[in-house]
Design a protein that fits this description.
- This protein is rod-shaped.
- α2 (14-27) packs across α4 (39-78), α5 (83-92) crosses α7 and α6 packs across α7 (110-126).
- Helix content is 76%, strand content 0%.
- The chain folds into 2 domains: 13-59, no CATH class; 63-126, Ribosomal protein L20, C-terminal domain (c-terminal domain of poly(a) binding protein, Orthogonal Bundle).
- It contains 7 helices and no strands.
- With 133 residues, it is mainly alpha-helical.
């Protein structure tokens, strides 16, 4: 765009506004009615959706953490050891597996998980900290 005066340059919103609105409309492409066609409505709905998406990412992490702990606890109960003792025994043996790995082993590899519980129990017995059920 060529402007003959500075006032016209200041008043013109130019391509920036087009691309900014286009980005919002693209995020609202799957909505129906005015939610997708009317910018003033669209921007409110899209911002609310982005807030929900942000909260959802945090909630998903919390949900997965509780799911992993539930699986590990269930696996530990099968082998007569508490979750706390299990983690303590693994830490004393320098076995550094995260929750996800332990939960996968508890759910899909029961023999491997049993070996880990046996190692943890043995270490706690050797250190005199056996508090098993």
């Amino acid at each position: 765009m060529v402007f003959t005066t500075a006032i016209n340059c200041i008043r013109a919103r130019g391509p920036d506004e087009f691309w900014r609105k286009r980005q919002i409309f693209r995020l609202a492409a799957h909505y129906l009615g005015r939610r997708r066609n009317c910018y003033s409505v669209t921007i409110k709905i899209v911002h609310r959706a982005l807030v929900y998406a942000t909260k959802g990412r945090h909630l998903r992490k919390e949900d997965m953490k509780s799911l992993h702990e539930t699986r590990i606890t269930a696996g530990c109960e099968q082998h007569n050891i508490t979750f706390k003792d299990f983690k303590e025994g693994l830490a004393r043996c320098d076995i550094l597996l995260n929750r996800r790995s332990l939960a996968d082993l508890a759910a899909w590899e029961p023999y491997s998980f049993k070996a880990l519980t046996d190692i943890a129990k043995q270490r706690l017995d050797d250190d005199g900290l056996s508090r098993s059920k």
